[in-house]
Amino acid sequence: MTSAREIRMWTPNTILLLFAILVGGGVALYRLTSGLGAVTNLNDTYPWGLWLAFDVLGGVAMAAGGFIIAAAIYLFNWKKYKPIGRPAILTAFLGYLMAVVALFLDIGHPFRLWHPMIMWQVHSVMWVVAIHVVLYTTTLAIESSPMLFERIGKSGALKVLGKIMVGVVAFGVMLSTLHQSSLGAVFLIAPAKMSPLWFSEFIPYMFLISAIAMGLCMVSTEAMLSARFFNHHVDVEIYRGLARGTLISLSLLLVLKIFFLFRSGVGLAFDGSLEGNMYLLEMAIGIVIPMILLLNSRFRKEPDAILGVNILVIVGVLVNRMNVCLFSMQEYSAAQGSSYFPTLMEILLTMGIVSLGIFLFKMAAKHLPLFANPLEPR
Known about the structure:
The chain is mainly alpha-helical. Helix content is 70%, strand content 0%.
C-alpha cells in the first residue's frame, strides 16, 4: 500500500482541482458582494436552481453511504466493511460540508444561516431540514475525528470516543434517515406545481431509498478509485456486498415508482414532453439498466463492471434530484411565463465546490491515517 508520504500532492489533476476551486471561490465572493441576481438566473418562480438541486439534494444523497457503512461496522459488527469505514465516513462528512457551503451561498441572507439553531420553527419542514444538517454534520465530524486524534497522538480522546462511538453512530443513523426523507418531504408543500410523475405522498420514502442506493454506489466508487490512485488493497467481496445492497434498494425503489406511475397515469411518461422524457431518462439510467446488469451474478463479480453500474446509479439519482427540484415544475413555471437555465457562474461554482471536496479528501489521504488502522468498535 502507498504510504501517506508517497502520495504526490502537486500532480496535474490536483493543480486542475485548485484552479476550479479558485474560480469557484471568485464566483462565491462575487455572489456575496453583489447578490444572487448578479450570478444566477433564479427568479420568483424558480427560487431553487442548480445549487439546491445538484449541490444540496444531490450532495446529501451522495453522503448517505456514511451512515450505512457506520451502521454496518458499529451497530451490526460486519467486519468485512471495516477497511472502508473511514473513507466512507469522511466522504459523507465532506459531502455535508459542501452542501452547507452551497446552502450558505444560495440563501438570500447567507450570514443568517445559523438562525435556525436559535429560532425554532418546529412546524416547518424547512426548519427540520436545517436542524438535521447541523446535527448530522456535527455527528459526522465526531465519527471522523479518530483519524485526527491518532495523527496528533491524543490517546485519551481516542478512549473517550471509543466509549461513546456506538451511541454517536446510532444517533447519526437516526438523523440521516430522517434527513434524507425530510428533503423529500419539503416537496409535499407543492402538489399544484409538481408533475404527477414525481409528486406523491411517498416522496420522502423514495428520497430515502434512492439515497441509500446512491450512497452505496458512492462508497463503492470511492473505494475503487482511491485503491487505484493511492495504491491500497480493497477486498473485492466488499464491492460485491455493496452491489447486492444496491440491487435490493433499487428493486424496492422500482416497485414504488411503478406503483405511483400507474396511479398518476402511464401515458404521462410517454407523451413526448420534457417532463416525460426526463422521467424515462431517470428510470433508465438510474434504476432499470443497473438492475438488469446487477441481476447477472457474473457481472457482479467484476469490479470494473460494478464501477460502471455505480456511475449509472449516481448519475440517475442526480437526474432524479434535478427532476424533482426543477423539471417537475416545468409546466407550471412555463404557464407563469418563467424559465430557468443555470448561468456559467452557477456551473463554475458547483464545479468549484465538487473540486474542493475531492481536494480535501486527497489532503486527508496524505496527512491522516485514512486507509490504515481501520475503524474498530470498542
